[in-house]
Task: structure prediction
Amino acid sequence: MTEQSWRPTRRAVLGGLAALPFAGQMSRAAASGLLTRAVPVSGERLPAIGMGTWITFNVGDDAALRAQRSQVLQAFFDAGGGMIDSSPMYGSAEAVIGHGLAKTGQPASLFSATKVWTWSQAGGVEEMEESRQLWGVDRFDLLQVHNLLSWESHLETLRGMKGEGRLRYIGITTSHGRRHEDFETVMRQPDIDFVQFTYNVLDREAEDRLLPLAADLGKAVIINRPFRRGALFDRVAGQPLPAWASEIDCANWAQFFLKFIVSHPAVTCAIPATSRIDHMAENMGALHGRLPDTAERRRMAAAVEAL
Result:
């Protein structure tokens, strides 16, 4: 990786400064001392740690597992959480989210984000409405075209929904680190508010193009696969957290991995997934304390690469 890939753009630096506690108009989370980041297009502030639901919330109709996921959801909100991200391709996850939101009473901090993932435009309209009913929300905060599938037709639908007040933000996603060139092209569409892609302490390709471009274009950034689908924990299994991690207020590896991500000034929110309350508490702990600076980020990456 080059030195340039670690150097944020001017817009990114300003965005990072705006995310510091007590800077600008603050949300309840910011007022509570939690790390928040501003959505560039609106200035709305979101907690920098959200929640993904791929695999973890795909538990079908099992009553005991649904009840347990509702407890995980409650723990997320109790810790100051906001963004929940899902997709119709995640099996029963959206239905399980809806069940949990009914149990928690849909806290005011909820930022609902899901995706459209089908070839046809008409099918997308039906799919998004079904998702809305499964979640039990009046409207979504964010709808994203999943993996750019039929992105032109779906963006046309989303623009119409946003113009009618049935949607707050429009986004696009990619995963697995694929199709970055195509993704960059679509990112330049002026009415895309959020972009979502993979980034973590080992998968850092996004530093070269996607993160700087998002900062330059004023796009909010959601980071998926922050733990490499759990592979990062396998890599550090049995390894003690570096003693110097306490200097950036990391008490466990989850916070170490997440603080690496959200300390990048172009990142708005990371969305780790978990099915356990104790792991949720670890994840949400990354919303507190000091973030690493550029030199410390290099040190963090080198420490994990060396294992």
User: Anything to note?
Assistant: Residues 1-27 have pLDDT under 50 and may be disordered. The beta strands are 36-38, 45-47, 51-52, 83-85, 111-116, 140-145, 167-173, 194-198, 220-224, 269-270. The chain has twelve helices and ten strands.
